[in-house]
Structures are given as structure tokens and as C-alpha cells.
Task: inverse folding
């Protein structure tokens, strides 16, 4: 195809009227598999793409994730496979291992009534032995990531000489991840006579150039959606301080009726921390991120699918391509800073017509992100409040009632325990209702069934009007302010930002925690003065941590953290008057007075 050739464009209908899969020209075995899966009406991308691919035309499909594009290319391929041919007839390139596995599962379901169809996932992190054995036996469809496909081509273990169908799934993502050169190398290794389908959510110049070079007069199919997020997903957000996110998540888990859930964190370390804290609170949770080996990732995802795991805590990349039917809720523990990531995240729920819930935690400074998401997706996010103690207790009581009802249905066991309770009542002269209450305590264990009400804020006593003296000298000298000693194991540090710089305790905690790798429990009292602030931190901070913290900025200002020794007005003794700016102490002298760890002596 030359640079001047323009693709033939066809716009997919938003809602194909009364169309069924039987109208698309698919064979009887494929239609039977679709009926068993429960598919009835094709989506817009499927209605426009399947007949075109069945005709043998190349296709460029513009569609967002979750629109059903996997079936759009997989069904025509399955329909035309020759099960007697051993060499691969179809190759699907996907940007991630998770997406490759998802596509493989789809092919296997669609080929459920075709005997002898073999589909092979090929991706990094999996041993070569399994892949080589399958390739030697013969496979019809290979679904893989570009890097591992290149490895097999270089080793001569993957023969693409008889390839008839090539699919580039989420082509824009592959280019973003640096696979452009690998994709072009693979395209060059395949027969010119193959049929190509390219699917992408966006059409950057590199994708446009690739389609012109490697596709033959493609039909360009664009699905124009009214919004970029599914209307089946209820989108809410909660304004919460950074330090309160875990408590907020715990309360939401208490009151929301969820089946499976994905909690998104911004970094690998935060996913591990969230999962650990959720397990400590009694929830079945696990983390997947870039540090988790592939075998463990697959095991964790399978546990989520089977119901052995209820909450998956993940980073964006680790969760891309996940399609688990029981995911009813997505929680953005850290709201993403770009709308595309937001759409991909919440797209893990509300798939294939199912309903879903998406809840985003937003700090007061991140409100603008909510507006940006609403503008980009053309859907309004509903602000929600933190579930109250009463709401949590109502939910707990309801679940407790359900447990009692379920136990009462086991009539034989109830009869045995009824005799035991009756025996206790007769011998101890205790009312049955008291015995039932005591048994509830035994069953509940140490954890209280109901939360205590939040304490009411104490009223301040009315201030007594100050008697003003005509002669101010009559007041006498003001008593010096007594400073509280830091608690055991802590030291007080001074930072060069204060009220004049409009800082708040949460900003100090957030900045020092992020830069120094500190936890919320590492912070003691924080006092914000006009020109500086005093922060209680562990006395045994390493020199490396102190160096990192000293170079931290809050509100754009270098905090120059150093040990405070309780001089007048909070000024560190030995630091000199800040009015003397003749020279700054050398970095190596900055912590001469700081407490030293035992291993530094």
C-alpha cells in the first residue's frame, strides 16, 4: 500500500438493531459455543468487524478496552481454522502476559465445539520447555508478547511460514512499552499473503504508518462511544486525608456488598503495604506488581477467579488485561494522574454487560483530578461520605443475623445443641437469652461485634475575659513557654517551613514519609511555628535517611531538617542567629549533634 492510498472507512453502529451472531456468517459449531457462553447480541465492534474479516479483508479497529474486540477478531479466526495443519495459522501479539492469557482463554471457549484446536500462550517468565513441547506437537493459534515471539524466531523454534492471520491487539500500548521494533521484525518474518487485523484505542502517527506499510487496503472501523467508561459502572469518590486512607478502605469493605475487588496503588511498595494491612484486618488479600514472579502472579489471579482470594491489590501494569468475572468493585487507593489509566483501571469491572462499582480516594489537593476525569469521560463522579459507625454496625448485625439464619437451617446440629443449652439452663438457672448472648461472645472472640460510637468533640470552656491593665508593665514578665519532652525513643527535629509558608501537618507527614521511607507510626508530635516547624521522629534515624530528608522540599521550599536542641523560641543551640547569613554549614557537619545509631559508633 502506498503513502497516498487512503484506508476505506466504515463507522460501526453504536447499537446494531436486533442483530444476532447468527446474522454475521459464523459456522454452527462457533454459534453453539457462543450460546453456551451466553453471548446473544454482538457489540458494535463485533458487528462491524466479524463480517469484514470473514470476507478476508484487512482491518484497522479503533475501540476502547472492554468493547468486545477480542471476540471481534477471535471468532472469524476460529471459524476458518484448518485443524489438520500443524504449523501455526494465527498469531496474536499482545502487550502484556495477562492480556495474552485472557485472549488464549477466549479462543479456547470459542473453539469449544471444534475438535483438535490447540491454542498456545507464549510470554516471558514462563519456561521454554512447555512452549517448545507444544510447538513440536503442533498448535493452530499462538498468542504472545513480542519479546518472547522474537526469542522463538531467533532460535528457529517458531515457524510462521504458513501463517494466515496476524492480529495486533492494543497496538498503541505495545508501542508505548517499546515494542515497536520487535513488532516490525515479526511482521517482516510473516508471509505477505496473511490477513492482518490491527486494534488500537488511539491512532498515533506510528500506528498509522504501520498500517499503511503492512496492511493491504484495510477497512478502518471506528466505534464512537458516548463515553470512554462503561455506563454499567457506578463511579464514586471519597475526599480523605492521605493518612486516613486505610481506615476509609476498611469501613468501605465493611458496608459494601462486594464479591471480588481490585485495589489499585501507585507503587509496588504501597500494594504490598495495603495487602499486608488488609490481611491483618482479617481480609483475604494479596498483591501483584512488577516484583512478583510470573508463577506467583498466575497463582494469585487463579485464586481470585476461584473465590479463594477476595481482594487483589495491584499496580496499573500488573492488572492490565485482567478479566475476572467476579470483580464487582475497583478501588483507586491512589487516584491516577491521567484519565487513560483511570479508564483502564475501572474497566476491570462492569464488563460484558455486568454492573460494577468504582470508588476513588481523593485527597483535598487532588480534587482537580476528579474534574479532569469527568471532562475526559463525560460522566459525572458522585461524591460519597465515609461510612459512619452506625452504618458499619447495621451491616455487621445484618451479617450476624445471616449467620444465625444459616446455622438454624442445619436442623440436626441445632437439635443437638438445643439439648446442651437446655442442660445448662436447668443446672445453672440462667435464662436462655443470657446463654445465647454468652455463646455469641464465645463465637465472636476478642473482636467486638459492634464499633463504639465516634467520640463527641469536647466543648471548650468559655474563655474568661482578660482584664486589661491601664499600665501594661503591671502584668510583670511573661513566664517562658514550657516545651514537652519528646516521647521515649524519639527526638525533635526542626524544619525550615512554618505558618508563614502555609504548611499543614499532613503535608509534612506526606513529604517526609515519601522521601524518607517513613511510616505513619514513625511520627510523633508536630508543632507548626510562624517561621519553622518541630517534628518528633525516631531518634535512631540513619544518616542516609537524614540526608534524604534534609533535601526534601515542602511547598517548593527546602526544609533543611536538623536536630532541635530546645533553645529559645525553638532555635537550636549552636546554630547561631539565622540573621547571620555569612555562610552555611557544610553538609558533613549538619548532623554532628544528631543521635547516632549503635552500628555507627
Result:
Amino acid at each position: 500500500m502506498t503513502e497516498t492510498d487512503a484506508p476505506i472507512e466504515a463507522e460501526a453502529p453504536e447499537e446494531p438493531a436486533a442483530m444476532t451472531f447468527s446474522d454475521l456468517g459464523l459456522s454452527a459449531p462457533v454459534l453453539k459455543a457462543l450460546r453456551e457462553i451466553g453471548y446473544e447480541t454482538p457489540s458494535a465492534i463485533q458487528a462491524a468487524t466479524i463480517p469484514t474479516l470473514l470476507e478476508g479483508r484487512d482491518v484497522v479497529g479503533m475501540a476502547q478496552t472492554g468493547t468486545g474486540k477480542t471476540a471481534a477478531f477471535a471468532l472469524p479466526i476460529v471459524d476458518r481454522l484448518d485443524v489438520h495443519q500443524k504449523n501455526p495459522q494465527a498469531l496474536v501479539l499482545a502487550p502484556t502476559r495477562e492480556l495474552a492469557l485472557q485472549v488464549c482463554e477466549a479462543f479456547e471457549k470459542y473453539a469449544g465445539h471444534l475438535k483438535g484446536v490447540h491454542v498456545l500462550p507464549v510470554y516471558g517468565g514462563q519456561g521454554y520447555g512447555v512452549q517448545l513441547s507444544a510447538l513440536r506437537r503442533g498448535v493452530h493459534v499462538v498468542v504472545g508478547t513480542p519479546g518472547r515471539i522474537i526469542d522463538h524466531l531467533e532460535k528457529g523454534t517458531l515457524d510462521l511460514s504458513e501463517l494466515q492471520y496476524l492480529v495486533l491487539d492494543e497496538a498503541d500500548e505495545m508501542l508505548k512499552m517499546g515494542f515497536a521494533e520487535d513488532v516490525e521484525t515479526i511482521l517482516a518474518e510473516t508471509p505477505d499473503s496473511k490477513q492482518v487485523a490491527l486494534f488500537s484505542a488511539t491512532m498515533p502517527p506510528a500506528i498509522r504508518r504501520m498500517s499503511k506499510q503492512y496492511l493491504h487496503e484495510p477497512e478502518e472501523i471506528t466505534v464512537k462511544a458516548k463515553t470512554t467508561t462503561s455506563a454499567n459502572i457506578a463511579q464514586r469518590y471519597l475526599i480523605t486525608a492521605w493518612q486516613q486512607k486505610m481506615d476509609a478502605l476498611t469501613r468501605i469493605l465493611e458496608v459494601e456488598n462486594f464479591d471480588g475487588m481490585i485495589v489499585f496503588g501507585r507503587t509496588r511498595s504501597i500494594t504490598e503495604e495495603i495487602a499486608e494491612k488488609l490481611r491483618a484486618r482479617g481480609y483475604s488479600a494479596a498483591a501483584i506488581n512488577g516484583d512478583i514472579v510470573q508463577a506467583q502472579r498466575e497463582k494469585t489471579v487463579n485464586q481470585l477467579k476461584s473465590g479463594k482470594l477476595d481482594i487483589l491489590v495491584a499496580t496499573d501494569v500488573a492488572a492490565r488485561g485482567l478479566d475476572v468475572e467476579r470483580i464487582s468493585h475497583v478501588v483507586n487507593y491512589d487516584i491516577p494522574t491521567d484519565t487513560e489509566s483511570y479508564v483502564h483501571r475501572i474497566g476491570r469491572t462492569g464488563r460484558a454487560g455486568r454492573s460494577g462499582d468504582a470508588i476513588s480516594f481523593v485527597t483535598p489537593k487532588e480534587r482537580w483530578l476528579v474534574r479532569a476525569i469527568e471532562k475526559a469521560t463525560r460522566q459525572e463522579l458522585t461524591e460519597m461520605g465515609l461510612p459512619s459507625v452506625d452504618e458499619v454496625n447495621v451491616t455487621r448485625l445484618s451479617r450476624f443475623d445471616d449467620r444465625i439464619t444459616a446455622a438454624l437451617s442445619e436442623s440436626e446440629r441445632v437439635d443437638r445443641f438445643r439439648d446442651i443449652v437446655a442442660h445448662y439452663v436447668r443446672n445453672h438457672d440462667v435464662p436462655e437469652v443470657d446463654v445465647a448472648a454468652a455463646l455469641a461472645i464465645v463465637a465472636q472472640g476478642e473482636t467486638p461485634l459492634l464499633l463504639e460510637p465516634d467520640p463527641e468533640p469536647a466543648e471548650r470552656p468559655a474563655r474568661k475575659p482578660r482584664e486589661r491593665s491601664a499600665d501594661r508593665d503591671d502584668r510583670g514578665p511573661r513566664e517562658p513557654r514550657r516545651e514537652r519532652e519528646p516521647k521515649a525513643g524519639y527526638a525533635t527535629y526542626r524544619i525550615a517551613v512554618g505558618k508563614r509558608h502555609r504548611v499543614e501537618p499532613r503535608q509534612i507527614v506526606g513529604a517526609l514519609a515519601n522521601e524518607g521511607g517513613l511510616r505513619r507510626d514513625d511520627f510523633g508530635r508536630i508543632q507548626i511555628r510562624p517561621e519553622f516547624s518541630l517534628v518528633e521522629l525516631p531518634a535512631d534515624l540513619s544518616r542516609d535517611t537524614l540526608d534524604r530528608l534534609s533535601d526534601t522540599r515542602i511547598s517548593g521550599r527546602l526544609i533543611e531538617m536538623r536536630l532541635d536542641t530546645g533553645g529559645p523560641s525553638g532555635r537550636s543551640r549552636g546554630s547561631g542567629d539565622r540573621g547571620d547569613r555569612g555562610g552555611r554549614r557544610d553538609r558533613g557537619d549538619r548532623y554532628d549533634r544528631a543521635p547516632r545509631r549503635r552500628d555507627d559508633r
Notes: The two ends are 73 Å apart (CA to CA). The first strand starts at residue 8 and ends at 11. Confidence is low (pLDDT under 50) at residues 1-8, 12-17, 466-482, 568-601.
